[in-house]
Specification:
Blueprint lengths: L6 E3 L11 H10 L5 H22 L4 E3 L7 H8 L16 H9 L26 E3 L6 E3 L2 E2 L11 H11 L4 E6 L1 H7 L1 E2 L10 H17 L4 E5 L9 H17 L4 E5 L9 H6 L4 E5 L7 H7 L5 E7 L9 H15 L4 E5 L18 H6 L3 H17 L5 H16 L6 H8 L12 H12 L16 H11 L5 H22 L16 H4 L3 E4 L6 E4 L2 E3 L3 E7 L6 H8 L7 E5 L1 H6 L2 E2 L5 H22 L3 E5 L14 H16 L7 E6 L8 H6 L4 E4 L11 H4 L5 E4 L12 H14 L18 H23 L1
Parallel strand pairs: 1-12, 2-6, 5-7, 6-8, 8-9, 9-10, 10-11, 11-12, 16-18, 17-19, 19-20, 20-21, 21-22
Antiparallel strand pairs: 3-4, 13-16, 14-15
Helix pairs in contact: 1-2, 7-8, 11-13, 15-22, 17-18, 18-20, 22-23, 26-27
The chain binds glutamine (GLN) and zinc ion (ZN).
The site of glutamine (GLN) has 15 residues, from loops.
Amino acid sequence: MSSSIVSIATLGAPRIGPRRELKAALESFWAGKIDEAALREAAAGLRAANWARQKGLGITEIPSNDFSLYDHVLDTSAMLGAVPSAYDWSGGPVPLATYFAMARGSQGHTHHDGCTHAHAGSGQGVPALEMTKWFDTNYHYMVPEFRRGQDFTNASTKAVDELREAAALGYATRPVLLGPVSFLRLGKAKNDDFDPLSLLPGLLPVYTDVLRRLAASGARWVQMDEPCLSLDLPDAALQALRDAYGMFARVVPQLNVMLTSYFGGLGDNAATALSLPVAGLHLDLVRAPDQLEPILSRAPRGLVLSLGVIDGRNVWRSDLPAILDRIEPVLSKRGTDHVQVAASCSLLHVPSDVELETGLDPDLKSWLAFAAQKMDELTILGRALGEGRDAVRDELAAAAGVIAARRASPKVNDAAVQRRADAVTGDMARRRSAFVQRRDLQREHFGLPAFPTTTIGSFPQTAEVRKARSAHGKGQMSDAEYDGFLREATAQTVRWQEEIGLDVLVHGEFERNDMVQYFGEQLAGFAFTKAGWVQSYGSRCVRPPIIFGDVSRPAPMTVEWWRYAQSHTERPMKGMLTGPVTILNWSFVRDDLPRAAVCRQIALAVRDEVADLEVAGARMIQIDEAALREGLPLRRSDWQHYLDWAVECFRLTASGVADATQIHTHMCYSEFNDIIAAIGAMDADVISIETSRSKMELLDAFTSYRYPNEIGPGVYDIHSPRIPDVAEMTDLLQRARAKLGDDQIWVNPDCGLKTRGWAEVRPALVNMVEAARQTRAALSA
Ligand code: GLN
Ligand code: ZN
């Protein structure tokens, strides 16, 4: 085989830095400890390191403008001058202060950890833009805010600056821009009802201006991200794509556009994507491997196809020979200059470098590929394709060896778990009796008043609690001391809840670092990294657990804490668990089993915990499914399948108990309309949900669908430091009563209280209990 160069692309590198250098710089800057120049210098250092690494490995399509000080969608808003008037910007380049005000609010902010939705700031000053999840990732972007008829102007030179910065260092790069159609669809019309796509004509001249400047500064290609291509799109969006890319081709013909779709297949958007006058099209062949054949048969001969074969969303080393088997024929058919090999999406969504892990099991470590290793894999593929497989024979053999070793490893395979999962029957996912019978037994057993009061589980994780945890983690506090500290915090919290008259109590979750990690650390089949940080938003990073093997629960996880808390009160103490779907959705999941199968294993493990809590005497057990909704597939047509197995897993966890044992669940979101039937099918005896911020609007879902079981629509918005007064909460309860039966309603906050301080929580809960009392009194009057 004659050797030639095959283009390889990463689509984007992690921004936060292998040791979270960007986080450190940002936080120092926000704290006033370093100035803007120092922040910019730190950022430039991270960019240079990413470029150097990629160049060193032989990546040919090195991205620029993939870096961001906070968020690339926010960068795009800045580039287009899409700055809402509240931020007081009067044109010209968007200053850093304005940029961070949009990101974080102008006087600090409160973001609620652990919830699926994060929220803008509160208090005085201008609140931050709204923030929400980037497609089905755990990355959050700042939602662009539009007004009718608004103008756009070029208000940031970032893309051009970073292209030049790279060039000055000797790197020819391919700038990355978020495409105009995805940008508009990710934003929303503020206090108005119009389709943001109607703003496209005003947007395009700014884009073409930027493209022209990029071309003038030496760019030959630009990567235009249009991840909306993986969604169900209305005709208007398809037309917008034709308009936008038609205009770019006409006005800036000298610049080649690599149009990227990712996170899924093109599906019924394929015809449109293939008809656009672009030079290249990127396909996510990890999420949607089956689209390769149909696209190949329809792609115009001159189109460069970028094959996204290295998984940008997961952490496993790839089966490189198997990938080559699939893509070699594509190369021979289309020729090396019409194919690129790429990551499936930007490597932003995986941690930096496995080599930084010091404590991992060596076998597991050898199976993992973070961004640095994925870049390696791309290079190996490029060489195999350009020079022939022999040129990288050892690397390919090693990759195949890893796959084989992982498949056969006793650390991955637990025959007992596999047998048990195979033996699950439908009965195991059904409570013994229907809800109405259970309800009567439970009412008799608990004798609770109407509108019973409770909380969602956690109480403030104060500085003191965090300090103790960190001291214990560093070995500065002994196990016994730490345990004593946690017991005291728990006992006090239980006594206080009883004092203010809450009906159903919780232990407060002081012992938990995180609602998923706490369980993952006690389950077999999970591993945790030391440096496996992934950006969640801005400077915030998470280290998702890695589910590498069959999951089981070697020993009870929460029973002792429950027992201890219950010993301080006669009132019902809820057992508190995180549900299987949430544990799955907030982890990196093994890729050698279907997600549904992994979830079923977790469900069985948590089911064991439910059983042990019941044996210990718990009669109320809450199984949180905070992340059930966010696991919904991007395409509607895939929803039902997901909901079916997700609900089944929840039920498998919950259904082993006696009828008189009350199962609670909690979900912190406000969009229920489209999944309400699935929520009903979970058949929890009681569900608590978020409703206070939408003033119970979300209960609209319950107008056409009569939710059968009991429900606590949150009356206290815990995302804000505001202390709600009694009248406000009785009012919300009245609104709930208009939609639900009096005997269905529980009274509780929106979510856990861990991010709040006691100074707010105390009066707020006292008011909440009083609101329930007054509502009860009105009922009997
Ligand atoms: N029980 C958890 C808590 O109160 C639930 C948190 C969540 O749903 N995000 O913190
Ligand atoms: Zn919640």
